[in-house]
Design goal:
This protein starts with 29 loop residues before the first strand and ends with a strand. Helices cover 0% and strands 30% of the residues. It has 2 domains: 82 residues, no CATH class; 42 residues, no CATH class. With 126 residues, it is an all-beta fold. The radius of gyration is 17 Å and the shape is elongated. A hairpin with a 6-residue loop joins strand 6 and strand 7. Bound molecules: zinc ion (ZN) (2 copies).
């Protein structure tokens, strides 16, 4: 993973399906913070006597999040105009990741899932 802008926490590789990205919340809804102990997986693992042991996270009890409410994205940078290449490909101006606008796992319609950058697609034939 490239860390061109290390001050942004790359917490999302893909979007959570149960989170609504709307105009009302500027595509940045408030959610329960990922559990810092298990990093939102709900499980911990360790190697003990050469055996990998997996168990339910004791901090969040397997719920995968802490009790703290936080913005889904840390990124509150202004919207950036980005030219769309053929096929709907776009390069994120924040994290330089390439993705297509039809990929709703990584594009909310306004923000890039990986870094939360707001993007206004310009031109293109998509
Ligand atoms: Zn946990
Ligand atoms: Zn990005």
């Amino acid at each position: 993973m490239r860390l061109d802008r290390p001050f942004i926490k790359f917490r999302h590789l893909t979007l959570d399906r149960d989170v609504a990205f709307t105009d009302a919340n500027d595509h940045n809804p408030t959610v329960f913070e990922d559990c810092p102990s298990c990093r939102g997986t709900g499980r911990r693992g360790e190697v003990r006597e050469n055996e990998h042991i997996s168990y339910v996270c004791g901090v969040c009890g397997g719920s995968r999040h802490s009790q703290q409410r936080v913005p889904y994205f840390d990124n509150d940078a202004p919207t950036v105009d980005v030219a769309v290449a053929s096929g709907g490909w776009i390069t994120c101006p924040c994290c330089r990741w390439r993705f297509t606008l039809s990929d709703h796992r990584v594009w909310t319609g306004r923000r890039h899932a990986r870094c939360g950058q707001k993007i206004r697609p310009v031109g293109g034939d998509a």
